[in-house]
Amino acid sequence: MPDIVVKIYLYFLIGSSVILFLLYGIILLFERYYSRQLLVKRKHLWRNLFSLITGIAGYYFFTSRLLGNSAILLITSVLILFGTIAAELIERARKSTIRHHRYGRTNI
C-alpha cells in the first residue's frame, strides 16, 4: 500500500474528528439557549473521541515506521470498530445508571 494512501486516510481520520468536535461544540453552545432537547448524543462524542485517539495512534505508527502500511490501515480500522462498540457500551451503562437512580431498582 502506498504511503500517500495511508497519509490521506490518517489525515482524514484526525481532521474529521477535530472538525466534528468543533461542530459539536457549536451545536451544544446554541442548543443550551434555544433547545430543550439534546441534538448531539454523548455516544457520538465518545465515538468521535475514540476515532481521534485512533488517528493519532495510527499517525504515530506511520511516522515511526513501527508497522507496515497495510498493518496500520488494518489496526486503525479495527480500533475504530472497537471504539464504536465501546461508545455504545458506555451509553448503555450510563442509561442504566440513570434509570437506576431515577426509578430505583426495577426489572425494566
Number of beta-strand segments: 0
Helix content: over 70%
Query: Which percent band covers the strand fraction?
Result: under 5%
Largest sheet: none
Distance between the termini: 50 Å
Outline: elongated
Radius of gyration, whole Å: 18 Å
Q: How many domain units?
A: 1
Topology as H/E string? Answer: HHH
Q: Show unreliable segments.
A: none
Count of runs of 4 or more consecutive helical residues: 3
* Secondary structure category: mainly alpha
Mean pLDDT: 87
Please outline the helices and strands.
Blueprint: H1 3-34, H2 42-64, H3 69-103
Helix pairs in contact: 1-2, 2-3
Notes on the protein architecture:
The protein is mainly alpha-helical and 108 residues long. The protein has one domain (3-103). It is built from 3 helices and no strands. It has helices at 3-34, 42-64, 69-103. Helix 1 packs antiparallel against helix 2 and helix 2 (42-64) runs antiparallel to helix 3. It is elongated, with a radius of gyration of 18 Å. It starts with a helix and ends in a 5-residue tail after the last helix.
